[in-house]
Request: fold
Amino acid sequence: MRELSIYNTLSRKKEVFIPLHLPHVGMYVCGPTVYGDPHLGHARSAITFDVLFRLLQNLGYKVRYVRNITDVGHLQHDADEGEDKIAARAQLEQLEPMEIAQKYTERYHDMMRELNVLPPSIEPRASGHIIEQIALIEQILAAGYAYVNEGNVYFDIERYEQDHHYGTLSGRLVEDLQANTRALDGQESKKNPLDFALWKKASPQHIMRWPSPWGEGFPGWHLECSAMGMKYLGEEFDIHGGGMDLLFPHHECEIAQCVAAKGKPTVRYWMHNNMVTRNGQKMGKSLGNFITLQELFTGEHESLDQAYAPMTVRFFILQAHYRSTLDFSNEALQAAAKGLERLQNAWQLLEHLTPNPQNRFEVETYENRCWEALCNDLNTPIALSVLFELAHEIESATRGAVQMDAETIKRLQSLFDTVLGDVLGLRKTKQEASNSEALDVAMRLLLEYRAEAKARKDFATSDRIRDALKAAGIEVQDGKEGATWKLS
Reply:
């Protein structure tokens, strides 16, 4: 088994990934809050952990991948006060909150299928795990790290800090947080402005509510992931992932909750993908500068010159390392479309290469570099750069400048199939693959007919076929081993 190293946000360094219960891996990723159309930021997180899921499986691990759906709707401002986002959308669209949750969950699933994101092993909803969340609150209360006030339950940061440290993930210090935190309206029931809600008493106008030992209300935002993660992955599991914007306070609060309830951390490796930016500013709904995936796929947005295929969007995301920012622009998407087309063409050319027994091509070096990049903290840009080098060699082979024997061609096909298709998830859809197969058969027949025409010195027919194909967007290239074609 190849050695995988990943950057652990908790230790702030790369660590060799060795789960204690090989070959099984437990992985939890924070999914969407379903109150609006999924956007590019949602896609980046989903694709990042989809590649990790695919890579782990390819390396031989059995993975239980849990990705939650937040359908309770955490509050605005500091996630303890303000308007419930799902309830607000429900009022706007004149629907029940669960209708909103169902509508946008399905929209999210549709977009993930377009992007070739594999479904997780389990996809729990916060609303379906209220009992588990209440039980976790009771454990935290029993341990003395929370208090009840007027039907609300708050996590007691000062009490927790006496025995543990709040800020292990983000590197923050409680005294610094206190110095820079001001009391917000509606938070008078807290002992300390840093304390966060485990359970909130529902106001008369609050739509989403459940019965609890403390009265009717709803769980705090941070609670759901802790409760569902431990339910499906146990009190200790391997990987917890999400966007960089969740690192503090969401994931920091998760750590505190679990340590308070269980006396120990539950997660071994924390992973965070960085933000999508636009003109250097974070792209997001709160700033109003986001672009939905549907707008990207249709081109119906003022900043877009054209529609972009889902695989182009996926390729665009994978061109940047998951821990670096990804700056959106129409020009960057156009470059991604051209780059993906070149790799797809090279992949297709492998099916038409004529083997040459005088092999002068060393494929093993490229194989090793590809896998080393992927196993080095999911370095997809480096893996793609290796594939681009191979695309150049494959194009040279079609002109006879590079010789490849049958075994080399077979290994290259396997590398493209596995890395580009299986791990990076850039394989064509079933319909595209079917169309490509049919086109390939038709082109072979046509090129055979053209070759026969050239053999008869009927160059007028040969040129007419070549020119007609060029007008249709298909480029024919004549080489020593015969003619090849590609979509231009």
About this structure: The radius of gyration is 27 Å. Residues 5-273 form a domain with the Rossmann fold fold (CATH 3.40.50.620). The chain is about 45% helix and 15% strand. Residues 10 and 171 are 9 Å apart (CA to CA).
